[in-house]
Backbone:
């Protein structure tokens, strides 16, 4: 009877150890699956140094690469001084590793769109907020700097009387 009890206790011990090991392995794999490679999330348009007019509608293109990002949740306009405007929010899928969204450069009046001149000029950036699943984790990416001409677009010109 003692030998049976010893064997039973040993079997329960082995079962417990294997159960914990299996749980830890499954948990580690789940965490690894959710850990994004945020460096792979990139904004490919607008391009560095590109000049747009205030009020223009531009296309923001995002490459999700192997980041794990499944959708873009927001696009924001930034200057070197900080956030200018939270411009778009929604749920834009990264289909085929890419996403694109039209965005109006509707810069609020009073926002300073000029930072230096010539080679000292700095620009604006678009920030994309990418989601990995519904509950995160999340990644952000900033575009290269582009410029905004503060004159209105040609479609906004006043008629001569």
Residues:
């Amino acid at each position: 009877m003692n030998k049976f009890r010893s064997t039973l206790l040993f079997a329960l011990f082995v079962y417990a150890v294997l159960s914990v090991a299996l749980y830890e392995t499954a948990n580690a794999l789940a965490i690894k699956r959710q850990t994004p490679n945020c460096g792979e999330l990139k904004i490919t348009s607008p391009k560095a140094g590109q000049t747009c007019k205030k009020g223009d509608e531009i296309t923001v293109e995002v490459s999700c690469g192997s980041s794990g990002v499944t959708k873009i949740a927001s696009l924001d306009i930034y200057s070197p001084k900080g956030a200018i405007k939270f411009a778009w929010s929604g749920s834009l899928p990264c289909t085929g590793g890419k996403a694109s969204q039209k965005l109006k450069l509707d810069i609020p009046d009073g926002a300073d769109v000029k930072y230096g001149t010539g080679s000292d000029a700095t620009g604006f950036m678009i920030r994309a907020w990418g989601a990995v699943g519904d509950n995160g984790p999340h990644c952000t990416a900033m575009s290269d700097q582009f410029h905004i001409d503060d004159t209105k677009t040609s479609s906004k010109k006043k008629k001569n009387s």
In short: The chain has a mean pLDDT of 76. The first helix runs from residue 2 to 34. The helical segments are 2-34.
